[in-house]
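[Automated response] Your request has been received and processed.

Submitted sequence:
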Amino acid sequence: QVQLVESGGGLVQAGGSLRLSCAVSERTFTIYRVGWFRQAPGKEREFVARIPWSGGSTSYADSVKGRFTISRDNVKNTVYLQMNSLKPEDTAVYYCAAGLTMSTYHYWGQGTQVTVSS
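Generated structure:
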């Protein structure tokens, strides 16, 4: 089955930047899309961004448009989330997920903590 491992989280001041990585392995040929999600304490998990695995347009949550950029490197089998102009409200555990179809995400990583201090 598909395996995902996130990295790149950490503590950053407001206005700063971080780049998250999602290394994808095993059966990557089955993947339709990869998404980033986040969950803040006491809140539900929310969609952040997604990218088709084999090409196509990206999609972003309104709250991160213009600040975050999702990209992929199919040679390295890695999806990135470049996060700029970070705000304290971006503090959350960030997860990447792989979907084999358009309808759902089938595999999830373990998450990486992002903390933005004011």
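Summary generated for your ticket: The chain has a mean pLDDT of 95. The longest strand covers residues 18-25.
If you did not submit this request, please reply to this message.
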